[in-house]
Amino acid sequence: MAIVTANVRIAGRPLRRAFVEHTGPAGVGSLGWDLTDENGSFTFDAGFLADKVDIRVYCHNSVLRVLDGGFPIPTPVHQVIGGVANGDTKEIPQQRDFYRILATSLDVYDTVWRQFRPFNRDGRGDFPLGRKDTVLETFEKARRIELSYPDLSPAPRAWVEPAALNNGNFPLVHIKHRDSDGRLFGEGDSEVADHDPSLLPHELGHAFHFAVQTTTTRQSLEAQFAGFILTHLSDPTHQIDKKTVPAVAFIEVAGHFSERFFFFRKRVEPQLSGEDVRRAFFRDELRTQSLRNELIDPYFTVGTQTGTVVTPVLTGPDSEAAVYGAIYLDFARRVGLREAVGLVLDSNASTFAEFKQHVAGRGNESWRTAIGAVATTWGM
Ligand SMILES: [Zn+2]
């Protein structure tokens, strides 16, 4: 018997925490399951007289599953790789864009969301929605977030369903083809010569936020957001400096926070982690705005801090800039970013008013004072 330990890579990077199946010849039959580790490494027993294995690598990791949206019913993606020997490093041979999306989505989770409750609790961690006892059971039965690419729906841009019927009422992310949205991989498109790769950091922020809300809230938002998409076809990007309605503003800012924190950690303070990077983030966003110089796409300053005084650029619960600044910067500087985001995820809120009510009802006097001051400053 020969033990085969080998690595899978996508675009030269380890394919981390992805499901791999040990198959019979030509992908027929199932001989075992593994999950790649942080190095993209897996191990199978090749069996008596054999020293190589055939494997099926699923476009599905501990964070989400990618579907090929180019069919009437979006279909799971996988690749069969034959003749893998001990010590081999195998690059995903085809459908590589799907696996790049998979790997980046996991990076967004690890870089931004995993440090906040409930994701940082026992039973989550690697798996934002939890896992089952075995790899196979987790693959088949655990709750998960899904992503469909390329999205062929009438929506002009990427969008996220909070409660997708065919995903057990959990989120489904819809991503347009890379040629029509250069934000996917950080490249040019028909509109702009070059972009930051901001699309997945933004849209996955929505997915992780929705994923911890109640089913009732997700279904309610599903109805509202479907309406929003259809009624804003000519102005689909609901930008941070434009007025909208309070529910859209509150939901949108989870995407803005996710995108900004991701790039702050990657480009501004890559050596920091934990409490240090969380504190550096809101301080920089209010005082220095380093991202303005680090990003290719336009950056909007939502407020500035001089001494202890914060001055908003825009105000009101219908302004994405104001709601973002109020919660993820100003409330965060008062109670800590970990607490601020944890309270957003706990709150099941859909507007700033509901969030404020949740915080005030928690019986913590300093939080109540903080959210009151923030609401006054930002005109909520
Ligand atoms: Zn968004």
Helices and strands in order:
Blueprint: E1 3-10, E2 13-14, E3 18-23, E4 30-35, E5 41-45, E6 52-61, E7 64-68, E8 75-76, E9 78-85, E10 89-91, H1 96-113, H2 135-141, E11 145-149, E12 159-164, E13 170-174, H3 199-211, H4 215-231, H5 246-268, H6 274-287, H7 291-294, E14 303-306, E15 309-312, H8 320-335, H9 337-347, H10 352-360, H11 365-377
Parallel strand pairs: 1-10, 7-11, 11-13
Antiparallel strand pairs: 1-2, 1-5, 3-4, 3-6, 6-9, 7-8, 12-13, 14-15
Key features of this structure:
single chain; 380 residues; alpha+beta; Immunoglobulin-like; 5-stranded mixed β-sheet; 4-stranded mixed β-sheet; 11 helices; elongated; binds zinc ion
Brief sketch in words of this structure:
Among the domains are: 3-60 and 76-93, Immunoglobulin-like (Sandwich); 238-380. The protein has a five-stranded mixed beta sheet. Strands 1, 2, 5 and 10 form a four-stranded mixed beta sheet that branches. A four-stranded antiparallel beta sheet has the order 4-3-6-9, sandwiched between helices. With 380 residues, it is α+β, with helices and mostly antiparallel strands.
